[in-house]
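Project outcomes to date are best conveyed with an example. Our students and postdoctoral researchers have been running inverse folding experiments weekly, and each run begins with a structure described purely in tokens. The record below, which covers 564 residues, was selected by the lab manager from last quarter's runs and is presented without edits.
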């Protein structure tokens, strides 16, 4: 570390401090600057971590820890992002017409502050800015983009990230039909943000008055969501948790409007709380996150457990299982996705959805959706990860991603929606109960109809992002010839695009037994992720399940040795 480098980062920090409107981050940064000026090498190192790079704006928008600095989420960064997005919208506006944007926010720390800053800066730039009336789920914002026919939407949320994170998701209306941004829009917006950051202080950005949407937007979303479920023929005993997020109020209204009884709730997790006090990570996928829900389910003898993540764009399901620890088993994202895909295909076949349509999932999700599409004569689309891609599949009837994301109502919401997916799954469970069957019975019927599809996932959280890059490079430089005793047939590198897919840092390993392994860095967290899928359609349902599971187990063990 050179004296010149320390001086440069101190200058950057002082310039940032001079335009930071937030009392908390100003005090935090002031302390770091004072310590660095007094000779603390730890403080200088921390300033380099905060200012040597900038939190990148991409197709996932922005997401990071709340703190001062260009590499953190804070009011300065959000103000620059809002002003850059405003420039992008003005550049693409029809001459003589003011662009429009709707802005939503969840219950995380600073979400409302970031949303209000965005609305004021958008209005100050000459854009019609509409702020949703209160903290709400991400799917309501995604719905509002289309319902209000605006040019863009912004949702302030970090979804299921750790408590001190926040983020900034951008949607586009018009030709994009309310989907999240993809390239080249992300690049254009990022360039405009950098121009703003290189210019004047954010304190000098003009601000204006914005509109506040009325409750009719939420009412319309609730009505549209309830409409996906037919009148229930049987009531299901349900336990619901909001995971300290914003899902409960909207979900409860949708369930009631659809004719279902109100679920039992996990009281300790039902209200929004940015500290997420009962979970280490507010993500239903994480071990222990659903423990309170299954505890309540045991007490209530529930037939179904429904969990949303904090911004309610994801859905987790657990069902009774005497062999599982605690008596309930959380279904994997693939299991829920395949059951909902089957539900959607049957509805489509019954004429509830016009046209032949498309089932879509990401390349890391179960190949079982393709089997459903073949069975029902539907098109199938395999996309890159993220609903920004899934939502753009032509003729979309249903889309899912194994990370608990499901799109069941594409006519109204072009993003994953944990509330409408929960209503759809509750409707499925109700129909099964009316027929004297359970969700477990339906999973067995799926195997008999389409074959067994087994999957597993390895998720390696790192503190040094260089470890992820080095692991990906090693797999490229030294490709394995066998994994878990199963021979590798070929490895497809998606870095330069493959089979019509855009370039992505993904390796797809095809095994000689028909199994598949995907390896990629996470797009939102410091993780290397490995996805393993195998299938079998030979023998009885039990034999199919055993064969697919055995293959996945062998490959899982082999990959842990390879990348662990």
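After processing, the design step wrote out the following sequence:
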């Amino acid at each position: 570390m050179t004296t010149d480098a320390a001086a440069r980062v101190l200058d950057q920090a002082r310039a940032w401090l001079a335009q930071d409107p937030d009392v908390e981050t100003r005090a935090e940064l002031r302390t770091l600057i004072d310590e660095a000026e007094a000779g603390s090498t730890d403080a200088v190192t921390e300033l380099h971590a905060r200012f040597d790079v900038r939190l990148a704006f991409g197709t996932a928008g922005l997401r990071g820890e709340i703190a001062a600095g260009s590499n953190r989420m804070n009011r300065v960064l959000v103000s620059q992002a809002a002003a850059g997005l405003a420039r992008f919208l003005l550049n693409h506006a029809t001459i003589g017409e003011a662009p429009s944007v709707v802005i939503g926010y969840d219950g995380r720390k600073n979400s409302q502050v970031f949303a209000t800053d965005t609305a004021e800066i958008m209005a100050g730039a000459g854009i019609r800015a509409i702020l949703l009336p209160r903290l709400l789920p991400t799917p309501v914002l995604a719905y509002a983009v289309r319902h209000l026919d605006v040019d863009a939407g912004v949702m302030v949320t970090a979804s299921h990230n750790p408590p001190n994170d926040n983020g900034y998701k951008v949607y586009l209306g018009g030709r994009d039909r309310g989907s999240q941004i993809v390239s080249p829009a992300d690049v254009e917006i990022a360039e405009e943000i950098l121009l703003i950051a290189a210019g004047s202080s954010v304190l000098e950005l003009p601000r204006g008055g914005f509109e506040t949407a009325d409750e009719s937007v939420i009412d319309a979303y609730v009505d549209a969501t309830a409409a996906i479920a037919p009148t229930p023929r049987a009531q299901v005993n349900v336990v619901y948790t909001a995971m300290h997020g914003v899902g409960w109020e909207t979900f409860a209204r949708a369930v009631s409007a659809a004719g279902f009884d109100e679920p039992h709730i996990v009281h300790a997790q039902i209200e929004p709380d940015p500290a997420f006090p009962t979970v280490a990570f507010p993500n239903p996928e994480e071990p222990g996150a659903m423990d309170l829900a299954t505890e309540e389910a045991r007490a209530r003898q529930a037939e179904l457990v429904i969990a949303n993540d904090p911004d309610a764009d994801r859905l987790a399901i657990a069902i009774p299982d005497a062999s599982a620890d605690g008596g309930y088993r959380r279904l994997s994202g693939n299991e829920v996705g395949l059951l909902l895909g089957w539900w959607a295909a049957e509805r489509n076949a019954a004429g509830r959805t016009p046209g032949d349509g498309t089932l879509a999932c990401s390349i890391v999700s179960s190949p079982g959706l393709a089997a459903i599409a073949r069975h029902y004569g539907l098109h199938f689309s395999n996309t890159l990860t993220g609903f920004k891609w899934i939502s753009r599949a032509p003729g979309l009837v249903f889309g899912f991603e194994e990370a608990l994301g499901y799109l069941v109502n594409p006519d109204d919401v072009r993003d994953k929606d944990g509330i409408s997916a929960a209503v759809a799954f509750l409707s499925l469970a109700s129909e099964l109960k009316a027929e004297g069957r359970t969700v477990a019975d339906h999973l067995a019927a799926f195997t008999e109809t389409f074959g067994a599809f087994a999957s597993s996932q390895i998720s390696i959280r790192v503190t040094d992002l260089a470890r992820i890059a080095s692991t990906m490079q090693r797999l490229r430089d030294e490709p394995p010839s066998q994994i878990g005793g199963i021979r590798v047939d070929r490895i497809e590198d998606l870095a330069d695009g493959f089979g019509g897919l855009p370039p992505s840092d993904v390796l797809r390993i095809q095994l000689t037994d028909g199994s598949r392994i995907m390896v990629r860095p996470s797009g939102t967290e410091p993780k290397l992720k490995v996805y393993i899928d195998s299938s079998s359609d030979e023998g009885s349902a039990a034999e199919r399940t055993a064969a697919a599971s055995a293959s996945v187990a062998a490959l899982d063990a082999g990959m842990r040795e390879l990348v662990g």
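The chain has four domains: 1-52, 58-213, 215-436, 451-563. The first strand starts at residue 62 and ends at 65. The training component of this project remains on track.
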